[in-house]
Design brief:
506 residues, single chain, 24 strands, alpha+beta
């Protein structure tokens, strides 16, 4: 399920993988939270989105419109900041959902534009489909992108806290930072990977994106739909062209067409979600709500404040403590702490985690101490092994340090690998006539480098090709070969790419 605010955002967020998802016989749903009716009629945007998604074989019955406004006229600046049950008016003059929206189809009624209804509708959509994979935009500079991301996180926090055994793969990404504001390098001979964006709409140089906790070197890179690299006027080009009246979106095609699709992983198997959390002071409810960055003013395009959903100990609390109790024994390997974004630049602290666990039927405690530097946003306390945990007490030696979220984790991403050249994901790679070697790497997630098996499959017996470490060597007779990388422990996890001396050999 793909969740975005505007019609066309789905293509900028994950258009390069849509065809691949359908090709794997996945039932793909696309949810638009707004009607995109500020500056353009909803009828046009709805018609365009249905036509665009039909290019990928996505049926109109799988395209869901929540029907909310695109920006608001309100004294509260935005629907997100209004009281939960107070109705506000959109810029287009509406006060309730419209346009054959989800709540009308499901319940036979329109919903007033309230924050509570927005949350209820999004929760109802997710509950009705129960998708295995959820892809949602994160904190771009547009207020509707921000409310979509924040409400999604709050809804997921409530769903995951219910302990119903539902742990979907959740990926967050950016529409503007990487799509609209991306680098147009599509015309180069070999398709290049997504480049780090130059704009983040913050004067704080330590923030790389609208979500300060997301770092470029922690991105998850997925391969794209192979058919997109075959020709320029492919499915993505045809789909983006359908948005020609509302957005003229095709002018950004070169920015979105890259050899990888970039996301950030939010781990839903966080044992702190649904756990009982108490603290010596402050509001501990913010520590396990799945929201890592929240704001008191999402309408502020540049330098949006991150001043909500933060646990902060009281001034009188000289020995702050956080107590986490689980309703059953859990298996964990580490604790991840998200520092609050206001105190972190001025204060360092020492964290002690006292972990009560069971070993061979007996209870005992393990202590783990870690110093957190003043500019460290994300801190991980590793146990070094799997522990059977009953409860955790976190002790902090500085009451000027707060946290926005705590994760208690055991697992990470599923095993996955991809072959790359000079850091770019490749599929069919074309060499120059004088190139005799390549820098070949392998991107790995959820597995170890030592588990990788490398193999060269040659087309010509006369040519010599050697894959040694991160280098691939060719002789003058080389025309074409295939590279295969797989896991020794799981042979079904593999990647195969083609290396060509020139395009006439393909």
């Amino acid at each position: 399920m793909i969740i975005v605010p505007h019609q066309d955002d789905e293509l900028f967020l994950c258009g390069t993988v849509l065809g691949m998802l359908k090709g794997c016989k996945q039932n793909v749903y696309v949810v638009f939270t707004t009607n995109g009716d500020y500056g353009c009629s909803f009828e046009i945007r709805k018609r365009e989105s249905i036509k665009a998604l039909s290019v990928f074989g996505i049926k109109s019955s799988n395209i869901i419109f929540l029907g909310y406004g695109d920006q608001y006229n309100t004294e509260y600046r935005h629907l997100y900041h209004a009281p939960e049950n107070e109705t506000v008016e959109s810029k287009a003059g509406y006060t309730q959902t419209y346009g054959g929206e989800f709540c009308l189809i499901k319940k036979g009624i329109h919903h007033e534009y309230t924050l509570n209804n927005y949350k209820l509708d999004l929760a109802m959509v997710i509950a009705s489909v129960h998708p295995d994979v959820l892809i949602c935009n994160d904190l771009d500079w547009h207020p509707e992108h921000r409310i979509t991301s924040l409400i999604f996180d709050k809804v997921m926090g409530e769903i995951l806290s219910d302990n119903i055994g539902y742990y979907p793969l959740v990926l967050k990404g950016f529409v503007y930072f990487i799509g609209w504001d991306g680098i147009d390098d599509y015309r180069k001979k070999n398709l290049e990977s997504t480049k780090r964006p130059g704009r983040c709409y913050s004067t704080d140089k330590r923030f790389e994106f609208g979500n300060p906790y997301f770092k470029w070197n922690q991105r998850i890179r997925f391969p794209i739909d192979y058919m997109l690299i075959k020709k320029k006027k492919n499915r993505l080009y045809k789909a983006i062209y359908k948005y020609r009246f509302s957005q003229n979106a095709k002018r950004f095609y070169g920015c979105m067409m890259n050899s990888d699709a970039v996301f950030w992983y939010r781990n839903t198997q966080n044992h702190a979600l649904g756990a009982s959390i108490l603290s010596s002071s402050g509001n501990p409810e913010f520590l396990n709500d799945f929201v890592i960055a929240d704001s008191g003013d999402i309408t502020k395009e540049k330098n949006m404040p991150y001043d909500k959903s933060i646990w902060m100990p009281a001034e009188w609390d000289t020995s702050p403590k956080i107590h986490i109790s689980f309703n059953k024994i859990i298996t964990a390997r580490k604790i991840v702490l998200y520092r609050d974004l206001y105190s972190y630049a001025h204060n360092q602290c020492i964290i002690k985690a006292v972990v009560s666990c069971r070993q061979e039927g007996e209870c005992h405690s393990r202590e783990f101490t870690q110093k957190i530097s003043e500019y460290e946003l994300l801190s991980t306390i590793s146990f070094g092994e799997e522990l059977q945990v009953e409860k955790i007490e976190i002790q902090i030696d500085n009451n000027k340090v707060g946290f926005s979220e705590i994760e208690v984790l055991n697992s990470g991403l599923p095993a996955f690998l991809k072959i790359k050249v000079n850091g770019d994901y490749i599929y069919d790679y074309y060499l120059g006539t004088k190139t005799n070697d390549l820098h070949v790497g392998i991107e790995v997630y959820g597995c170890k480098e030592s588990d990788i098996v490398r193999e060269v499959i040659q087309d010509s017996p006369k040519a010599s090709v050697l894959w040694q470490g991160d280098k691939l060597y060719f002789d003058k007779n080389f025309k074409r070969c295939y590279l295969k990388a797989s896991l020794k422990s799981r042979p079904e996890v593999f990647d195969i790419v083609c290396i060509n001396r020139n395009k006439t050999n393909y």
